Amino acid sequence: MAKPVKTFSCAACGASFNKWSGRCDGCGEWNTIQEDKGISSGPPSKSLGAKRGSSLVLSDLSTEEAPPPRSQSGIAELDRVLGGGLVPASAILVGGDPGIGKSTLLLQAAAHFAQKGLKTIYVSGEEASAQVRMRAQRLGLTNAPVQLAAETNLRDILTTLEAEKPQLAIIDSIQTMWADNVESAPGSVSQVRAAAHELTSFAKRRGVSVILVGHVTKDGQIAGPRVVEHMVDTVLYFEGERGHQFRILRSVKNRFGPADEIGVFEMTGRGLAEVTNPSALFLSERGEPAAGSVVFAGIEGTRPVLVELQALVAPSPHSQARRTVVGWDGGRLAMILAVLEARCGIPFAGLDVYLNVAGGMKVSEPAADLAVAAALLSAREDVALPAETVVFGEISLSGALRPASQTENRLKEAQKLGFTSAIAPKGGKASAAAGITLNTMSDLTGFVGEIFGAG
């Protein structure tokens, strides 16, 4: 077994030597050369060994640095989701179902950023340049100074970006990129990981903002290793139902702004149009009050959004009753049904339960519990709630109602859209807004008794 090689370094200047001597040849100091103990223990083949690297530049927490400058795209909903604009040298990952409008949105964003003065390169690995030009012509973006390329070879793409020195590069998509140093097919886990690492590292070294498009799996997650989401600074999901014209851009990770922020768009013949008042859009198709229909005052990121929750309860012809949910968590629905039966004595056994969030919206916050319970009870008892009432609040397993955050913002949004009353838990930090009658409840039993009678 070979003996480990000893190395020596000068404590004054850091110069390295293969043997000890009394005087350092680098700085001339005497008795400053010491044997290196190594920065890692273990055999050299399995550890870092004795070889040292360069020292880091350290700073304290009081170091004041100016916030990173942001570039506005002119698309207010996109800038909102990005946290106020595009940050230089940032890496952004955009995911969504096939055909949902990712390429359309990013082509519009590229055109707006280019018109604002950013040098922008759009690299398509899925479509030919002629196809992208046809889309740009349909969207009326042919005059935008965007440079276009169709390529999948990662080495050629990085070489081009280094030569052109753009401020923004859009890669559509990361699953089509091919690195010649990785022996696997494009789209594989190894290729996606390598391509994402190289593009993210390039963005940090050269100060180029990079936007990557990622495919999603059947579960709605970005395809490939989850490590890709950890490499980038921002992860955005583009959501929506094919049957609705609404599209929601949701931020699930953002190092430069708030997470869970949403931007709402409407798909039109001229591309994606931003929606400045999403609550009015989600409630635009709401008709006369019907049993099972409840308006929920929710918070998405920093903005209040009102959506309609629809429930249907019908006798089940099968031995196993169905529980179908669209736009909400199925496990949370099961919890609400259990609390209604255990704490309020309202059984749903032998009844099929269907719950839908209208407009293709996805609701995740616990404050929707009370609205869901109201919709279920309304459908079961065939009693419609007043059309001008909004509901929000969290239900605990004991049947108690817990107050929701940002109560005042929820009420202000409801009052702006013409609602006159609200049902919420007691203990909220905000009082009722002007024009809103606030009806507070302490537990689910009291809510059922007051709104729906004995059940």
TrEMBL record:
Any one of the GO CC terms: cytosol
InterPro entries: AAA+_ATPase, DNA_repair_RadA, P-loop_NTPase, RecA_ATP-bd, Ribosomal_Su5_D2-typ_SF, Ribsml_uS5_D2-typ_fold_subgr, Rubredoxin_2
UniProt key word Cell membrane: no
Motif (RadA KNRFG motif): 253-257
CDD domains from the UniProt entry: RadA_SMS_N
Amino-acid positions noted as binding ATP in the UniProt annotation, renumbered to this chain: 96-103
Top-rank taxon, per record: Bacteria
GO molecular-function term, one example from the UniProt record: ATP-dependent DNA damage sensor activity
Location of the RecA family profile domain: 67-216
One Pfam family in the UniProt entry: Zn_ribbon_LapB
Residues covered by region (Lon-protease-like): 352-455
Single Gene Ontology BP annotation: recombinational repair
Region (Disordered): 34-53
Keywords linked to the UniProt accession: ATP-binding, DNA damage, DNA repair, DNA-binding, Hydrolase, Metal-binding, Nucleotide-binding, Stress response, Zinc, Zinc-finger
Gene3D superfamilies associated with the record: 3.30.230.10, P-loop containing nucleotide triphosphate hydrolases
UniProt-listed NCBIfam families: sms
Protein family (similarity comment): Belongs to the RecA family. RadA subfamily.
Domain notes: The middle region has homology to RecA with ATPase motifs including the RadA KNRFG motif, while the C-terminus is homologous to Lon protease.
Protein purpose: DNA-dependent ATPase involved in processing of recombination intermediates, plays a role in repairing DNA breaks. Stimulates the branch migration of RecA-mediated strand transfer reactions, allowing the 3' invading strand to extend heteroduplex DNA faster. Binds ssDNA in the presence of ADP but not other nucleotides, has ATPase activity that is stimulated by ssDNA and various branched DNA structures, but inhibited by SSB. Does not have RecA's homology-searching function.
Name under which the protein is recorded: DNA repair protein RadA
Organism encoding this protein: Sulfitobacter sediminilitoris
Upper taxonomic lineage: Bacteria, Pseudomonadati, Pseudomonadota, Alphaproteobacteria, Rhodobacterales
Gene that encodes the chain: radA
